[in-house]
Fold this sequence. Notes:
The complex is a heterodimer of chains A (267) and B (283). With 267 residues, chain A is of the alpha/beta class. Helix content of chain A is 38%, strand content 23%. Chain A folds into two domains: 18-97 and 169-266, P-loop containing nucleotide triphosphate hydrolases (Rossmann fold); 107-167, no CATH class. A six-stranded mixed sheet of chain A has the order 5-6-7-3-8-9, sandwiched between helices. In chain A, helix 5 (113-124) packs across helix 6, helix 5 (113-124) runs parallel beside helix 7 (152-164) and helix 6 crosses helix 7. Mean pLDDT of chain A is 86; it is low at 1-15. With 283 residues, chain B is mainly α. Chain B has two domains: 19-60; 78-280, MetI-like fold. Chain B contains ten helices and no strands. Chains A and B meet through helix 4, strand 5, helix 5, helix 7 and helix 8 of A and helix 7 and helix 8 of B.
Amino acid sequence: MTSNPVADRAQSAPATASMPAITLESVAHQYEAERTTVRALAAVDLSVAPGEFVSIVGPSGCGKTTLLRAVAGLLEPASGRVEVFGSPPRTARRNGALGLVTQEPGLMPWRSVEANVRLAIDLAGSDGSATSWLERVGIDRYAGLYPRELSGGMKQRVALARALAVDPRLLLMDEPFGALDELSREAMRLELLALWERERISVLFVTHSIREALLLSDRVVVMSGSPGRILEEVAVDLSRPRTDALLTEPAFVESERHIRDLLRTSA
Amino acid sequence: MQRTGQLETPAPAAPEVVAVRPSARAAARVRGWLAVTVPPVVALVVLVIGWEFWVREREIAEYLVPKPSAVFEALRDDPGRYVTAARESLTAAMGGLIIASVGAFALAVLMAHSRLLERALYPPALLVKLTPIVAVYPLFAIWFGFGVGPKIAIAALITFFPMLVNALIGLRAVDPAALDFMRALDASRWRVLWSLRMPSSLPYVFAALRISVPLSLIGAVVAEFLSGSSGMGQLILIANGDFDTPALFGAIVVLATLGVALTGIVAYIERRVLFWHDSMTGP
């Protein structure tokens, strides 16, 4: 595959090009526990532009995952409106617009690495070869191996290749590098950035690492818990491509401190 | 299965391929196999020889405990009798096992998709399991006659529940992340069943087969005891009536061999099918 699928799609459907990738309007949700009702989200408004990389940071249990699942259509929020490219998540899902990467890789252990990616291609009815996607995330050498023969980092690469292989216009990532060691996290972050800069798809990235969020995103959405709500949206005005050299830059340090203070005062 | 070791993330290097000569690997495999098989075989041979000498030395009556050599002679003198009986019992056992396993798996698929069906059908299934099967044999004889029918029915009845419970657990025990992935791609229920639930259930299905293969033989032989019409159960009844203890032991040896062989076949298939599963890390 030589052409850029996102660009192709944008040309063929100019009307959707300017439409937000994600629109959330007063989305609220609660879980019924045995005796109490846990309010996971309280009236969240959020918009993500096409091609934008947005991260959500917040403490555990602040509703980050609930929000992402609502966008993926895996969860029907109790109230509010969720739209993905101007239609309900289910429609977007049906059109193969969504790619999902979760903290657990969720690979099929009975399928080889290549067959795992091929399953995604079959399900989405997209074209493109599994091997070329494995190449793009740098693991084509392991195409014939089975998940249990791979380390955590390699499995997450397969999960990423699988999510990208459906040609998504929106990539939803829920702490995808959460279970990885520091070195693997860094390598995966760079891979993801390189891929995103090439493919220019929209990304909603849930993490509890402020640094990870700042290094990756155009915008960081800071959430606080019980009930989950957005404290502030922090625009990240750092030049790209971003490397670890940014970690000591005053603008980066200032943003990091600001977000940390936000989270601390809300706790 | 050759493991390539844990591959670390930064700098994805080529998989570490350790050059092992095929002949050396085969030799290692044979050594491993011998280490597992030789000790029990030696123990069995020692036991049989000790038994033979003990019976000869103490001049124990043959109808109480026959010499192993007498058992061997009983088997050798009329092998056709055992082969025919074993074939009849095996047919009933396998017939019942296959019908029950397929039926139980199909029911488990339905129950896995509907809590209502599960709530409705699980208690009756449990009731059937908890009823002593011997009690229903006369009923089966009335319904299915005195041929192979009631034997298959008993074998099916005794093996149905282990498969139902295991398959149901297995079909539900899917990796939630894998399920989310499929749902995010709008996979249909059928696709999820075929590509995720069924493969996930296989370890549980094989666990059920390991339980139900010997159970199916028990079911068939018990039915033959009750009907007295054919098979190993009938052979045992006749030998018992004749005080032909060597033949009785011969029948036990044949049934034990059948049980071991069937379990071995299941284990072999399991190793082939579940190569990807964590339980298959051993030699």
